[in-house]
Design goal:
Length: 347
């Protein structure tokens, strides 16, 4: 059994990690940390875990975590992980970091978007961006995996096949994404209050969302040239789920839907967690909530000549904790879908 620690285990992604890992046959959750609930049993704070996990929350100490764990998930807020992860790596632990602290390769880009100097820039190039369908071989040998953001997961997986085959114009990509409220994390904030979110639908951080450089970095690597996108996120009055609609212009106007479908099916052949729905079929978040799947559909608009791609994920699973466990399974040599086999919850 591999002993695992979860840092920041009282936030939504930390709790989702626990839910998934309780069903993992090769994992024992050895440490859970929370500054707010330090000393309290998790089953007293979150009764859903009663009879499943009765560990007490601990205050975060990298030294103590290193003594008790073989593998660590950091579900700490952005800007916190970069101080905690280095001592864990120095102690010989493998780490999956769910924050944005190690996703961007450029310290200058990190400072531009997160308004803070990176404290450990020397780790940025050695951290592997953890999107298994694109970087599985690098993840296998990694000590530090930067788990992708939720919006980027839905967008990168949707665009990668067409970018790889040089099918679309990289100067005119428009991404329109919608997320459930849990994407903002478990925190008290006026904009996230029930009365503010319920019966409401809004765009936010227009042309300034922090996931933008992450998406551009990764799709540029696939396209083998610099790519910029127009990205607008929206907040849905639901708990979970992301739906991304992406508008692209094909370079070859004679491409048929069957050609596009074959590109997607060939690219993701054998991939357990990416489902290509077929021509004209549109994913829905309702069919994959609680699962680690990314569903992708597309349609060619013959009138305007655009390719419209739609992708859907559960932002807390494939967009965060499920993908983190998928990365852990690869890093430790376990079957990749271990503890992630479940289908979505419907209705």
């Amino acid at each position: 059994m591999v002993k695992v620690g979860i840092l920041g285990a009282s936030g939504y992604t930390g709790l989702e990690l626990i839910r998934i890992l309780l069903n993992h046959p090769h994992i024992k959750i050895a440490v859970i940390t929370s500054e707010k609930y330090s000393g309290a049993k998790i089953s007293d704070v979150f009764p859903s875990f009663k009879g499943h996990l009765d560990l007490k929350y601990e205050a975060l100490s990298p030294e103590e975590v290193s003594k008790k764990c073989d593998f660590v998930f950091s579900a700490l807020p952005h800007k916190a992980s970069m101080s905690v992860v280095p001592p864990l790596l120095k102690a010989g632990k493998k780490v999956v970091d769910l924050s944005a602290d190690f996703r961007l390769k450029s310290p200058a880009t990190y400072k531009d978007w997160y308004k803070e100097e990176h404290k450990t820039p020397e780790l940025l190039n050695s951290a592997v961006y953890g999107i298994p369908e694109l970087k599985r071989e690098r993840i296998k040998s990694a000590n530090l995996v930067a788990n992708p953001g939720c919006y980027p997961t839905s967008v990168i997986l949707a665009l990668a096949p067409l970018l790889k085959e040089n099918i679309i114009d990289t100067d005119s990509i428009i991404v329109d994404s919608k997320s459930g409220v849990t994407g903002a994390g478990r925190k008290v904030e006026e904009a996230l209050l029930f009365a503010e979110c319920n019966d409401n639908f809004k765009a936010y951080n227009i042309a300034s969302h922090r996931h933008t450089p992450e998406m551009e970095q990764e799709i540029s690597e696939v396209a083998k040239k610099a790519v910029k996108i127009t990205f607008t996120p929206h907040l849905l009055p639901v708990n979970r789920g992301i739906l991304s609609t992406i508008y692209c212009s094909p370079l070859n106007k004679n491409l048929a839907s069957e050609d596009i479908l074959k590109i997607y099916e060939d690219f993701y052949k054998g991939e357990r967690f990416v489902r290509i729905l077929g021509i004209g079929k549109s994913p829905q978040t309702h069919y994959l909530l609680g699962s680690n799947y990314c569903d992708i559909g597309f349609q060619i608009d013959k009138r305007t000549g655009k390719i419209i791609i739609v992708s859907a994920i559960d932002n807390l699973v494939k967009g965060a904790s499920g993908q983190a466990v998928q990365n852990m399974n690869i890093m430790l040599g376990f079957k990749e879908d271990t503890a992630l086999e479940g289908v979505g919850i419907f209705p």
